[in-house]
Specification:
The chain is mainly alpha-helical. It is built from two helices and no strands.
């Protein structure tokens, strides 16, 4: 879990603070991180 996940979970639980935005940020950050980490092995395999 990331800090965004924790912030989103607490915010949703308390029904304050825009929890859905925190969760969306967490998912988007996860996709970006996964994409950034996935391209390097593909480049290495291709060489």
């Amino acid at each position: 879990m990331t800090a965004y996940d924790v912030a989103g979970a607490i915010s949703l639980w308390l029904q304050r603070g825009g929890g859905r935005y925190w969760v969306t940020t967490s998912v988007a950050t996860g996709f970006v991180a996964a994409t950034a980490n996935a391209w390097a092995p593909l480049v290495e395999i291709k060489r």
